[in-house]
Automatic annotation (TrEMBL):
This is VTT domain-containing protein. Keywords: Cell membrane, Membrane, Transmembrane, Transmembrane helix. Coiled coil: none annotated. It is found in: Cell membrane. It comes from uncultured Thermomicrobiales bacterium. The chain crosses the membrane at residues 12-37, 49-70, 136-158, 170-193, 205-222, 228-251, 280-302.
C-alpha cells in the first residue's frame, strides 16, 4: 500500500510523488493526502516540519517550472492531455480570474494553483497565454508553499491521531475506488442497455448489470458479515440477497437473449407483469445488500 511506502521512505517518496504529479503523471494518491500522511508519520518536530515544507516546496516548484517551460513550446497538446476535455474551461477560468484581479497575473496564478482540478492546467495555460515568467513564478512559488505546507502542517499537528488519519485515508481511498468502479460500471450498463431493441430487454440488462455488481460486492463482504449478528445470522442477512441477485442476473442474461422471440401481445403483457414483480424483489435485494455493506463500512454494524 502507498501509505506503508510513505511510512518507510518518508520525504523522498513524497518528493517524487510531488514532482511527477506536477507533470501530470498519476501517482495513485492525491498529493495533499500523501503530505497529510507524511506529516503525521514522518515529521516529529517543528524544525523537521520547516525543513520538510522548504524541501517539498522546492520540489513542487521544480516540477511546476518544468511543465510551464514545456508548455511554451507544446502547450496545447500538453494541456489537452492533462485536463482531458477541460482545456477550454481551464483557459476560460484563467482569463476570468485575470479580469477579476485587475490583470494581476501573479495573483491569478496563485489563486488557481490552489484549486486541485485546475492547478496543472493553469501551469500550462499560463504558458499558452504568454504570461511573463516573473509573474508566473511570483504566483506559483507561494502557492506551492501553501499547497505543501497546509497538509504537512495538519498532519504534524494531529500526529497523535496518526492511526485515525490512516484509517480515514483507507476508508476514503476505498470509497473512491468503489465509487469510480460504480461510475464505470453504470456507464457500461447504460451503454449495454441502450443496445437492446425492446424495453423488456433494456430492463433485464440493467437488472443483470447492477445485480451482478451488487451481488459480487455483497459476497466480498461475507467475512465481515460473519462477525456481525452471529456467524449464521450475518451470513444469512447478507448472503441470501447477494446470492439472489447473482441468480437473478444469470437468469436475466439468459432471458435477454430470448427477448426478441416473444411475439404475441398477451405473452408480452404477461412477461411485463412478471418483470414488474421480479424488479420489485430485485430492488429490495439491492437495497438490503447496500444497507448492510454501508453499515459494515461505517461501523454501524459492529462485530459481535
Amino acid at each position: 500500500m502507498i501509505e506503508s511506502v510513505l511510512r518507510q521512505y518518508g520525504l523522498p517518496i513524497a518528493a517524487l510523488m510531488l514532482f511527477v504529479g506536477e507533470l501530470g503523471v498519476p501517482t495513485g494518491l492525491p498529493s495533499y493526502l500523501a503530505l497529510l500522511i507524511v506529516g503525521s508519520l514522518v515529521i516529529h518536530s517543528f524544525p523537521d516540519l520547516l525543513l520538510g515544507v522548504v524541501l517539498l516546496s522546492v520540489v513542487d516548484v521544480a516540477g511546476t517550472a518544468l511543465l510551464h517551460v514545456l508548455s511554451r513550446t507544446g502547450g496545447r497538446r500538453i494541456l489537452t492531455r492533462i485536463t482531458v476535455g477541460r482545456e477550454a474551461r481551464t483557459l476560460a477560468a484563467m482569463e476570468r480570474w485575470r479580469r477579476r484581479l485587475g490583470g494581476r497575473d501573479a495573483l491569478a496564478v496563485f489563486v488557481l494553483r490552489l484549486v486541485p482540478l485546475v492547478r496543472l492546467g493553469v501551469t500550462v495555460g499560463a504558458g499558452l497565454l504568454r504570461i511573463r515568467r516573473r509573474d508566473f513564478f511570483l504566483g506559483a512559488v507561494p502557492a506551492s508553499v501553501v499547497w505543501v505546507g497546509a497538509p504537512l502542517s495538519l498532519g504534524y499537528l494531529f500526529r497523535d491521531d496518526a492511526r485515525a488519519i490512516e484509517a480515514a485515508y483507507a476508508a476514503v481511498s476505498r470509497g473512491l475506488l468503489l465509487g469510480a468502479a460504480a461510475v464505470v460500471g453504470m456507464a457500461v450498463v447504460g451503454w449495454w442497455a441502450r443496445t437492446a431493441t425492446t424495453a423488456v430487454g433494456r430492463l433485464r440488462r440493467v437488472r443483470a448489470g447492477i445485480g451482478l455488481a451488487v451481488g459480487v460486492v455483497g459476497i466480498g463482504y461475507l467475512p465481515d458479515a460473519a462477525r456481525w449478528n452471529g456467524q449464521v445470522g450475518g451470513l444469512a442477512a447478507l448472503g441470501v440477497p447477494a446470492l439472489a441477485l447473482l441468480a437473478s442476473s444469470y437468469a436475466d442474461l439468459r432471458a435477454a437473449r430470448r427477448t426478441r422471440r416473444v411475439g404475441s401481445a398477451p405473452a408480452a403483457a404477461g412477461l411485463a407483469a412478471v418483470d414488474k414483480a421480479v424488479t420489485a424483489a430485485w430492488a429490495v435485494a439491492v437495497a438490503v445488500v447496500a444497507a448492510i455493506v454501508v453499515a459494515l463500512e461505517t461501523g454501524l454494524a459492529a462485530p459481535s
